[in-house]
């Protein structure tokens, strides 16, 4: 066996060890009577983190995956790319850190601050962005990301 084979074998083994999946689904809120459960699946490789069900997470929150991706890049300070269903992040983002970011995102860009509802949308008006609640009609400015 060559050195290259040995290194390849070792890398494969490390990848296996680093594979971390979150096992505890977490309810972040409700839309109507349905609970919104976010259960991110993370894979840690040597120099990057992959969220394999990223698009699904964004869809559960009824948000554009590109918007959620920009938020995560900005708040974590780590660059990355959106690749169909997956989000690839350079560097290591822990499961706890991701959950913390998802909660912050929900608080700022999904949950209505007035009634707590999740039936909301982000509306652009000129250069401004608003979180508009489809239940109570509240309209609150949000930052552009
Ligand atoms: Zn509301």
What would you say this structure looks like, in words?
The protein is an alpha+beta fold and 145 residues long. The longest helix is centred in the N-terminal third of the chain and has 16 residues, at 3-18. It starts with a helix and ends with a strand. It folds into two domains: 3-110, Alpha-Beta Plaits, CATH 3.30.70.3150; 113-145, no CATH class. The strands form three sheets. The chain has a four-stranded antiparallel sheet, with helices on one face. A three-stranded antiparallel sheet has the order 7-8-9, with no helix packed on it. The protein has a two-stranded antiparallel ribbon with strand order 1-2. Helix 3 (65-76) packs across helix 4. Helix content is 34%, strand content 30%. It has four helices and nine strands. The protein has helices spanning 3-18, 54-60, 65-76, 95-109; strands at 26-31, 34-38, 42-44, 48-51, 80-83, 86-90, 120-125, 128-133, 139-142. The model is unreliable at 16-24 (pLDDT under 50). Bound molecules: zinc ion. Residues 112, 114-115, 117, 133, 135-136, 138 line the site of zinc ion (ZN). The site of zinc ion has 8 residues, from loops.
- The geometry reads as elongated
Output the structural class.
Answer: alpha+beta
Give start-end ranges of low-pLDDT stretches: 16-24
Please tell me the total number of domains: 2
What's the main sheet like? 4 strands, antiparallel
Oligomer: single chain
Percent of residues in helices: 25-40%
Q: Ions, cofactors, ligands: which are bound? A: zinc ion
> Got a strand count?
9
How many individual helices? 4
- Strand line-up across the major sheet: 3-4-6-5
Rg, Å, rounded: 18 Å
Under the CATH scheme, the architecture of the largest domain is: 2-Layer Sandwich
Following the backbone from N to C, one meets helices and strands in this order, namely HEEEEHHEEHEEE
